[in-house]
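Q: For a teaching handout, I want to show students what a protein-ligand complex looks like in token form. Below are the inputs, and the small molecule is thiamine diphosphate. Please produce the holo structure.
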Amino acid sequence: MSTITENPTDLSPEQLIDAYRMMVNIRRVEERVGQAYQMKKFSGFCHLYIGQEAVAVAGCAAMRPEDHYIVAYRDHGQAMAKGVSAEAVVAELLGKKTGSTGGKGGSMHIFDLSKRFYGGWGIVGGQVPLAAGIGWAIKYKGLPEVCVCSMGEGSIHQGVFHEALNMASLWDLPVVFVCENNKYAMGTEMSRISAVSDLTLKAVSYGMDAATVDGQDFFACYKGMKEAIDRARERSRPTFLDVKTYRFRGHSMSDPGSYRSKEEVQQEQERDPIPGLGRALIQLGYATQAELDAIDAEARALAKASLEAAEAAPWPDDAAAFDHVYAEPLEPLEGHR
Ligand SMILES: Cc1ncc(C[n+]2csc(CCOP(=O)(O)OP(=O)(O)O)c2C)c(N)n1
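A: Here is the structure, written as tokens, with thiamine diphosphate included.
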């Protein structure tokens, strides 16, 4: 294991500790959520982000609050990294009124406009053209903002992925396409779906900058994301990132994971990004083990309190069933009165 002697980022020690805290919060909240699911406290789809935390947290550390973030259905941790509270995320999972989407979205549709977090899309690759649209709006309005779009590697052979990347490059849109390559699309391993193993080649035909990033190393993630975000903000150019990561849990709660060996999972867990960043903080002299332990204890308390609050929260009002179905106010179209 390598020793780190210098902070390789422009983040302050406090910001790095905050990033560590966020990764631990996400981990503990999701572990608690997983238990709650098994105890049938909620149902429906539930995809955990455990193992991939560094990607979202480093990405959000490189973003500004006014930047936009749109993701797929494995979205609890990404929402928290962008500033959605653990309470709002957990309440959403339980379908409660206090959830980020008023209890109507559930696990796959965490959404918070005030944080510029646009969810939470269940159709594989569905968010990719939407990201290009957000990028187009940013450019049209001449704003110094960036849209970051996360997707799984299962998205990259969808037609919309290629249409969106082509348009983003052709029109110089400030979008960062982040492929969270966790090796498996449900039970299908990467090599069974892609004719090439170097996914950055996907960006070549669109004349787009691309890079491969180690998603289990917070510092590498931050560097890759920062370069791409700066390129988008300063030169309005898109980037494609192939971020090599790994999910420690099954695809969803109903996946026994029989397509991969225990040894493989164990080997990947040795590269868990959370202890990795923890060790670096100690080596840099930014934190002691006792301080990291305190962060962990607080995260466990946050997870427990979030679930208790969600259980005690009210259900959405019946009348709310018709809210947000149509854009409001609904003006009749010209000639259709
Ligand atoms: C268009 C479409 N096809 C199939 C599905 C079913 N499906 C849900 S998740 C998934 C796997 C996607 O894997 P990946 O994009 O790698 O993301 P990960 O789950 O690994 O985060 C599939 C095929 C879907 N939701 N949408």
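A: Two things your students might notice: The radius of gyration is 20 Å. Residues 74, 122-124, 152-155, 182, 184-186, 251 surround thiamine diphosphate (CB under 6 Å).
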